[in-house]
Amino acid sequence: MFARYKSSNQILYLMYKMLRFALPLILAAFVLSGCRKQPPTPLTDSAMGSGSEFGNGDDLIPSSMDSDWGNDLELRDGDESIDLEEGTYNGRQMVRGILQEVYFGFDSSSISPSERSKLQDAADHLASNPSDGLLIEGYCDWYGTEDYNLALGDRRANSARDYLNTLGVSGDRIDTLSKGSLEATAGLSKSESGQDRRVELIILK
Q1: Of 65, 115, 136, 161, which is least packed with CB atoms within 10 Å of its CB?
Q2: Residue 49: which domain range?
Q3: One domain, residues 146 and 54
Q4: How far apart are CA 165 and CA 130, in angstroms?
Q5: Pair (159, 65) in one structural domain
Q6: Do the Cβ atoms of 102 and 202 come closer than 8 Å?
Q7: What is the number of domains present in the chain?
Q8: Calpha distance 45→51 (Å, rounded)
Q9: Is position 31 within any domain?
Q10: In whole angstroms, what is the distance from residue 159 CA to residue 187 CA?
Q11: Which residues is 177 bridged to in the sheet?
């Protein structure tokens, strides 16, 4: 009987030791299972909204924009009015070299007195050739950012156009275009890059 009692005590002691080590593991497993994140609910057509601006949920571009957006990008890619192979602008033949280029000071769009005679020659040519038009291309040197130089080239072309208007040339015979610093020679000093600060006067036949 004493042996059975001793054996029972040993069994109870062994069970106590097992529970002592197993209980923390059971509690940890229970806590971790309670903290497990639920998987996200996938978006369905109904969740996105049938006929919403995002269409069927697969498009990142709103359905109200996608067709027009692509067309806008194509129209803005370069100047389609100029055909370099044919040498035409809006279907009219471009003739260079008849009229002299007009030069500008650094970061300036003012017509200097020494350059005004060139614009007078352009006005005289247009008066003698009523069917001709004029394309004024504005250029800049390599100083400054691309965006700034495009704006400066535009101001120079518009300044030449406005001066021609004062000489009696109708504005509907003149087109302007800015090339900015796209064709400028980089690395030149301000005095050396004076050749890039200009407008070109191109006859349109």
Answers
A1: 65
A2: 45-74
A3: no
A4: 15
A5: no
A6: no
A7: 2
A8: 9
A9: no
A10: 27
A11: 137
Buried b (16+ CB within 10 A) or exposed e, 16-35: eeeeeeeeeeeeeeeeeeee
Q: Which residues contact 21 (CB under 8 A, 6 or more apart)?
A: none
pLDDT tens, position by position, 95-127:
999 999 999 999 999 999 999 999 999 999 999
Give CA–CA dist 132/89, Å, rounded.
13
Q: pTM for the complete prediction? A: 0.61
174/170 Cα distance (integer angstroms): 7
pLDDT tens by residue, 172-201: 999 999 999 999 999 999 999 999 999 999
- 27: which 2 tokens? 């509690």
The neighbour count for residue 161, using CB atoms within 10 Å, is: 20
Residues 69-93: tens digit of each pLDDT: 333 333 333 455 777 777 999 999 9
What torsion do the CA atoms of 52, 56, 61, 65 make, to the nearest 10 degrees? -50
> For residue 158, which of 88, 202, 109 has the smallest C-alpha distance?
109
Mean pLDDT of 139-154: 97
Instruction: Give the whole-angstrom CA distance, residue 57 versus residue 43.
Output: 8
